[in-house]
Design goal:
This protein is an alpha+beta fold. The protein is 63% helix and 17% strand. The protein has 2 domains: 2-29 and 262-395, Glucose Permease (Domain IIA) (Distorted Sandwich), CATH 2.70.70; 57-233, Helix Hairpins, CATH 1.10.287.1490. The chain is built from 5 helices and 12 strands. The chain is rod-shaped. It binds zinc ion.
């Protein structure tokens, strides 16, 4: 019967020193040490979460700063754009005015060229006429003259006309040169304005480009910031949840602490004095099933079926149902360290439920023989910091 032996060994070791199977449900919620551990964990998470929020806040601050710098840049660029636009507008006016001047100058130049040309033609004709006369009509002039004096007068008159014409032509040429110079100056000025205009337009285009680029970056930063704010909200929500969890755990701990004033020391007898007899003590004993020597983690108190079992101290019921080995079982948490277990309760004999606060001496169950038991008795275990200890010093 290998199986039976193996089972027995397992059972025995479980009964002996083994930590009782972690009771599900309320037990895990009410065990003080467990609550303390949970609170510590929640606080660690909370701290990590606070750091998360801080990290995000710092990221947001960085982006905000970048955005601020960018906004300043945009203002500077925009100011420059305004300046350059003003310059362009001014240049546009200058070009318009100068173009008018250039047209006028060109007209004047055309006129003076025309004048020179006319004067040249006039002079050429005059000279030609004079010399024709000189060659052919010299005599005519001479002969036509009343005397030599008259002839000379006539000749002088002709010469004076030519000289006058020549002077006018020279004046005209000088005038033409001046007009030409002026026209060139105006053209030069116009070309200069046009070049400045082109350069300004290039600069404006460059500034527009910069402005658009900065705007795109700014929009991107705003998007990032918005996204970070969303994350921040989520993280803050998580932080709030942790704070709430912490608060509820702390409240739970306070409740558990307030339920029991037990500060250690003597426990009450779980069965009324005189109504039981000790049948098995704490420590090594002969296993009632196998006859082998095995550890016993509590006291056995034999009593008739149905005998009242009392809570050994104030506390909270953390387990109240069937447990392998112990049969129907109640476990009460008295403070952070001390927990008592009541086993082999009769069928239907559990009179408390998980989460219930009980007082010392309050009826919690009735004696029976459920589980691994050979007769009606109460198995009573005292756990200190999750380890079974000898109950005797607590109840004697
Ligand atoms: Zn026992």
């Amino acid at each position: 019967m290998r199986n039976k032996v193996t089972l027995a060994v397992v059972m025995a070791s479980m009964l002996a020193w083994g930590v009782i199977p972690a009771p599900a449900g309320y037990a895990s919620k009410t065990s003080l040490s467990k609550i303390n551990k949970e609170i510590a964990e929640i606080r660690a998470q909370k701290k990590a979460q606070q750091n998360n929020v801080k990290a995000i806040e710092s990221q947001i601050a960085t982006i905000k700063k970048e955005r601020g710098v960018l906004e300043q840049e945009l203002v500077v660029i925009d100011t420059k754009r305004n300046d350059i636009q003003r310059k362009i507008d001014k240049l546009d006016q200058d070009i318009e005015a100068t173009t008018k001047k250039a047209i006028e100058a060109q007209e004047k130049l055309d006129e003076s060229i025309e004048r020179v040309a006319q004067r040249e033609i006039l002079l050429k004709t005059r000279i030609k006429t004079m010399y024709k006369r000189g060659n052919v009509s010299y005599l005519e002039v001479l002969l036509g003259s009343s005397d030599f004096g008259d002839f000379l007068t006539r000749m002088q008159g002709l010469r004076m006309i030519v000289e006058n014409d020549t002077r006018i032509l020279e004046d005209n040429i000088q005038d033409k040169q001046a007009v030409e110079k002026h026209q060139q100056e105006v053209e030069g000025l116009l070309a200069n304005y046009k070049q400045m205009f082109a350069e300004s337009e290039d600069l404006k285009a460059e500034l527009d480009h910069q402005f658009e680029k900065s705007k795109v970056i700014k929009a991107e930063l705003e998007k990032q910031e918005e996204h970070l704010h969303e994350i921040e909200e989520e993280e803050e929500q998580r932080l709030i949840e942790l704070v709430q969890m912490e608060a509820s755990k702390v409240a739970e701990r306070k409740r558990l602490e307030s339920v029991s004033k037990y500060k250690g020391g003597r426990l009450g007898l779980p069965i009324a004095s005189g109504s039981f007899r000790f049948t098995s003590g704490f420590g090594m004993r002969s296993d009632p099933f196998t006859g082998r020597s095995a550890g016993h983690n509590g006291l056995d108190m034999a009593a008739p079926r149905g005998t009242t079992i009392y809570a050994a101290e104030d506390g909270i019921v953390v387990f109240a149902s069937y447990m392998r080995g112990f049969g129907n079982t109640v476990v009460i948490q008295h403070n952070q360290e001390i927990r008592t277990l009541y086993g082999h309760i009769r069928e239907g004999g559990i009179k408390v439920s998980v989460g219930q606060a009980v007082k010392r001496g309050q009826k919690i169950a009735e004696v029976g023989s459920t589980g691994r038991s050979t007769g009606n008795h109460l198995h009573f275990t005292v756990y200190k910091n999750n380890r079974a200890v000898d109950p005797a010093p607590y109840i004697r």
